[in-house]
Write a structure and sequence with these properties.
The structure is a single chain. The protein is mainly α and 168 residues long. The protein has helices at 2-33, 38-65, 67-102, 107-128, and strands at residues 149-154, 161-166. The chain is built from four helices and two strands; from the N terminus they run H-H-H-H-E-E. The chain has a two-stranded antiparallel sheet. The longest helix has 36 residues, at 67-102.
């Protein structure tokens, strides 16, 4: 059984080689000269493609069946995860001290500041329109840059609403 499998694989390799080097260029030239049809060229290309796929599948299957490959893949995955943990810990320690030394605000501080600004903006709008606005409790601001809040506030005495765009 293994001998027939190897013979089939070698036959596929020969088919791919023959198709790429001889059959496909010949079919293309025949088509260009008007002696053959496009269908003939396409059939030749598909024949080579199918044989190539079988060769690659057989090579991949034999690679995955190899115990050495499994051991190497398992050890390298383990080592990569260890390096990831180490680099994360070192990076956290280095940047925590660096962050305080530079004096930049943290994400939590920035989000709290944004929510305060949003509440002040709503209060200011309410005062300029003659409306009292209850400050709402808002979640941390997680919008991406370029996105804007859309707020609707009544601005006319008849109750018509004009949408306003607030800067983020």
């Amino acid at each position: 059984m293994a001998d027939q499998k190897t013979i089939k694989q070698m036959d596929d390799v020969m088919t791919v080689t023959k198709t790429l080097l001889f059959d496909l260029p010949l079919a293309h030239m025949r088509q260009r000269l008007g002696l053959g049809e496009e269908k003939e060229t396409a059939e030749t290309a598909w024949k080579g493609y199918d044989a190539g796929v079988r060769v690659v599948n057989a090579a991949t299957d034999s690679l995955y069946r190899n115990p050495l490959f499994g051991n190497v893949a398992a050890r390298s995955a383990d080592m990569m995860l260890r390096w990831q943990r180490i680099s994360s810990a070192v990076g956290g320690a280095v940047f925590a001290g660096l962050w305080q030394a530079v004096g930049l605000p943290t994400v939590a501080e920035t989000q709290a500041l944004r929510s305060e600004i949003r509440a002040l903006r709503e209060e200011l709008r309410g005062q300029t329109n003659g409306i009292t606005v209850k400050p709402k409790v808002s979640e941390p601001h997680t919008k991406r840059e370029g996105q804007q809040d859309h707020i609707q506030a009544p601005v006319h005495s008849n109750g018509a609403v004009k949408p306003l765009r607030a800067a983020a």
